[in-house]
Design a protein that fits this description.
about 500 residues, alpha+beta, two-stranded antiparallel ribbon, about 40% helix, THAP_Znf, zinc, transmembrane helix
Length: about 500
């Protein structure tokens, strides 16, 4: 009996020890799991903090540049003020992109030379702001802009040719005074009489009778100055004689006396000379002479640029570019300046003109529109307030595929910027929207541009068939007028009968 009790007690003690061991093992495993979890959590947080540090392959390696992937990520998660949506789904272009160093040895050496750093990171990235073309290209494969240091360029030495050295030595040996004396003596001998004795009697006889014909001579022989000039390969390489210059001057005087206006090759274009009438001003600028010089007078105080041209000529260049769509190479030849200066003048004046003249684009009151409405509108559309249409401007094809798709216009078959323009019935521009991608529809631009904020109940809008905006205008109690575009076309006939569609009596669809 006692032995059985002892065995039961021993078994209970062993079971208790096993339970304690299990509890201890469970506690240790839970502790280990907590330790491992906190270890990986702390490591993840440390890696996320150090993820965008310099030299880790996620930031620009150029000295002084702070562009990295973190800024791009935060930009994508931010809200676009222009389009009212996240930048990740917005048609706006990304601020910059990071480009990795190429593996080709020659281009890699160019990158290292351009970066000019002793401690290059393991993974070298450079943002697109440091490339001339916005990215590495075959023409400009290495970064060259905003490198954080100044390139010290030393001018090369001037090359001196051997014959120049020999001429200098001869001048030093003989002296300039001797050469001047020889020239004066030669001139006096040429002007002296033929029979006089001179120290230059060894000269050819032709020089003594240069360009002179004796009356008693029986043979008509005459020496020309071109016979004694150095022979050249082309006719245009011959030097001009005094006789030729005098004859050309007399020809110019004769043409001026006859009243013929002839411009020299170096004549340049200017507002004072070329804008003499309203027709000239309308041809070059699109405005009258009075309006143009009023603009010149108004914008003279805003001329903060250091260009050599006058303000009138600068504005003439800008308006000719806008009116006639002339290229800068043509404008530089017209104004006698370089192509780069013409481009700089245009790019400098456009923001100033836009900032000062945007206040002229105003939405006219309804009474003013009614008073200035043409007779054709008064008969057919008397309540028309505005005529709208979208215009497109060609742009360079973006490198980003998403932006390229959003700016591609199927109507123009090109990447374009699209904007809405509204004019009054008498032709005054009253509204211009901000630019959208060429892929945007007319309805989307009308809805997002803020055009409908100017409309009042009872107004009527005129547009073409592409503006399906009836559902947008109906809550505002605004009517959309779409005029007929088949005025001069032949009416469409029915497919089942010989009548026109409007006179068709068939119940089935034609």
């Amino acid at each position: 009996m006692c032995a059985a009790i002892d065995l039961s007690r021993g078994a209970a003690a062993i079971a208790l020890m096993i339970d304690n061991a299990r509890a201890l093992i469970t506690t240790i495993s839970i502790f280990c799991l907590h330790f491992v979890f906190h270890y990986f959590l702390i490591r993840f947080l440390m890696e996320s903090e150090n993820k965008y540090k310099t030299g880790g392959g996620n930031s620009c390696s150029v000295h002084g540049c702070s562009n990295n992937r973190k800024k791009i990520t935060l930009w994508k998660k931010s809200m676009c003020e222009l389009h009212g949506e996240m930048h990740d789904h917005c048609p706006c272009l990304i601020p910059y992109r990071l480009h990795v160093m190429p593996s080709k040895e020659l281009i890699r050496l160019e990158w290292i030379k351009s970066l000019n750093r002793k401690d290059l990171p393991k993974n070298v990235y450079v943002c697109s702001e440091h490339f001339i073309d916005g990215k590495p290209t075959d023409r400009n494969p290495s970064p060259k802009l905003k490198m954080g240091y100044e390139n010290k360029t030393t001018p090369g030495r001037r090359k001196i040719l051997k014959h120049q050295l020999s001429v200098k030595k001869e001048k030093l040996e003989t002296g300039d005074s001797d050469s001047d004396m020889e020239i004066t003596e030669l001139d006096t001998t040429l002007e002296s009489e033929p029979g006089a004795s001179t120290p230059y009697e060894k000269l050819p006889e032709a020089i003594c009778s240069f360009n002179v014909i004796e009356a008693s001579s029986t043979v008509s022989t005459q020496y020309l100055e071109s016979d004694f000039l150095p022979q050249k390969d082309h006719t245009y390489g011959k030097e001009w004689t005094d006789f030729q210059t005098k004859s050309s001057q007399t020809n110019i005087v004769l043409t001026e006396e006859k009243g013929v206006q002839s411009k020299s090759d170096g004549a340049t274009m200017s507002a004072a000379q070329n804008l003499k009438t309203d027709n000239d001003a309308l041809l070059y600028t699109g405005v009258t002479k009075e309006v143009f010089f009023t603009l010149v007078k108004c914008f003279t105080p805003f001329n903060t640029f250091s260009f050599q041209l006058e303000v009138a000529d600068q504005l003439l260049l800008v308006l000719m570019r806008l009116k006639l769509n002339l290229i800068f190479d043509d404008l530089c030849r017209r104004f006698g300046i370089s192509s780069g200066l013409a481009c700089k003048i245009f790019n400098s004046w456009i923001p100033v003109l836009a900032d000062k003249l945007k206040s002229l684009i105003v939405w006219l009151p309804r009474e003013v529109i009614r008073d200035c409405c043409p007779e054709s509108f008064r008969e057919n559309y008397p309540r028309t307030t505005c005529i709208i249409d979208c215009a497109e401007t060609f742009i360079q094809r973006p490198t980003n595929l998403r932006s390229r798709g959003e700016t591609y216009s199927n109507y123009k078959s090109h990447n374009t910027a699209k904007y809405l323009v509204g004019i009054s019935p008498h032709g005054q521009i009253m509204f211009i929207s901000k630019a959208f991608g060429g892929r945007a529809s007319d309805k989307f631009i009308v809805e997002k541009s803020g055009f409908m904020n100017y409309l009042l109940p009872g107004d009527e809008i005129m547009a073409d068939r592409g503006f399906t905006i009836d559902d947008l205008l109906f809550p505002l109690r605004v009517k959309l007028n779409i005029p007929a575009f088949t005025k001069k076309q032949t009416p469409v006939k029915c497919g089942r009968c010989d009548n026109h569609k409007k006179d068709c009596q068939s119940t089935d669809t034609c």
